[in-house]
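To the team - NAI complex, inputs and output below.
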Amino acid sequence: MKIGIPKEIKNNENRVGMTPAGVYELVNLGHTVYVQSTAGEGSGFFDDIYQEVGAVILETIQEVYKSSDMIVKVKEPIEEEYALIQPQQIVFTYFHFASSEALTLAMLKSNAVCIAYETVEDADGTLPLLTPMSEVAGRMAIQQGAKYLEKPIKGRGILLGGVPGVSPGKVLILGAGVVGVQAAKMAAGLGAHVTIMDVNMKRLRYVNDIMPSHVVTEYSSVYNIRKHIQTHDLIIGGVLLKGGKAPKLITRDMLKLMRPGTVLVDVAVDQGGCIETTKATTHEDPTFIIDDIVHYCVANMPGAVPYTSTLALTNVTLPYVLKLANKGWAEACAEDTALQKGLNIVGGEIVYNEINDAFDWGVKQV
Ligand SMILES: NC(=O)C1=CN([C@@H]2O[C@H](COP(=O)(O)OP(=O)(O)OC[C@H]3O[C@@H](n4cnc5c(N)ncnc54)[C@H](O)[C@@H]3O)[C@@H](O)[C@H]2O)C=CC1
Ligand SMILES: CC(=O)C(=O)O
Ligand SMILES: [Mg+2]
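Output:
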């Protein structure tokens, strides 16, 4: 198979869809790998390293899309890329369709086979291709949140860990999944007081067992959320309804319950966000303020730490890339139920229900 690795063009997206280690394996199996010139540079993988393991370097993104049966990348295609996608081409990447009607319509029109990293799902319900990036984003959420709590950048002026004689800051985490647990771990490590909420009692029991006593669990009800947002300094949104639009747990009117300078980090922004006032931001301009509340809503947080993120991502994607390359998408998905769940749009049809639900199109269920 001919496999193409384009350079990411989203704002400050420095990850790349395949490392030289992946190219090495594919080329040894007889596949051809096209890598766009400088695609790996942001992650420390230069063209000559790819060439040494047998990649063909192409100068332009147009050549990569045109030459390949399968595109392996990181972020969802952005508008400039829509027209580059070829009919029947496999596109293996994060899509987050539920947050973008424009992307969904463009991919329906493309007639491509869109396999979304974020909905590949193991038998136990976990999401193996989302997990590593959620680990990165969960940890980063505290790093970023701690920074934006500083007064000169309009935060409350709180040091999360406190100091001897002064109480630590308080962190509220919505969702006790991968993002939530990683964020709780980092916040607890800094000495902050942490409240973590979920509707899944099994998760809350697990968190209660593994976390120190300054991390407390609470059931995620509207009443409890309204109560806690009044006293917490940093609020992290990490909820997910697989493949669907995130539920709005903090509505616009609730901002006035918070103290000025409270920081919201809505990690779930890529699925539309769990805060009503969320709108996607970029690493270049990551925050905005509404009603004195600082919002950080960067949809590609791991893109800022590509040396870590590219390796963490490609460690888990490569086995699936190899399957797709060796067998083609239809046979690979028929044999592997986890990968089958990644199928979102195939040949102009949505094949993942939650995408239909997200847009309220009222069309057929799959
Ligand atoms: N902005 C970024 O750069 C990144 C964003 N993400 C996003 O972060 C979000 C979370 O991802 P994961 O932690 O991997 O998902 P996960 O599936 O591990 O955890 C989500 C948790 O939300 C809980 N939940 C659902 N409804 C809830 C409610 N009403 N109240 C409280 N909890 C509720 C679920 O029970 C689950 O435990 C996803 O949207 C993911 O795409 C992940 C990585 C990077
Ligand atoms: C999961 C996701 O949105 C990211 O890694 O950018
Ligand atoms: Mg996105």
